Amino acid sequence: MQAALENLSKEELIQENILLRTQLISFKAELAQLKRLLYGSKSERFVPSVPDEQLSLGLTAEEKPLEVKKQKIEYTRTKAEKQNKHQGRMPLPAHLPRVEKIIEPEVSTEGMKKIGEEITETLDYIPGKLQVLRYTRSKYAKADGEGVVIGALPSRLIEKGIAEASLLSFLLTSKYVDHLPLHRQIEIFKRLGVKLPPSTVSDWVSYSLNTLKPLYESLLSKVKASGYLQADETDTVLIKWLPECSLLV
Question: How many CB atoms lie within 10 A of CB 138?
Answer without folding.
Answer: 18
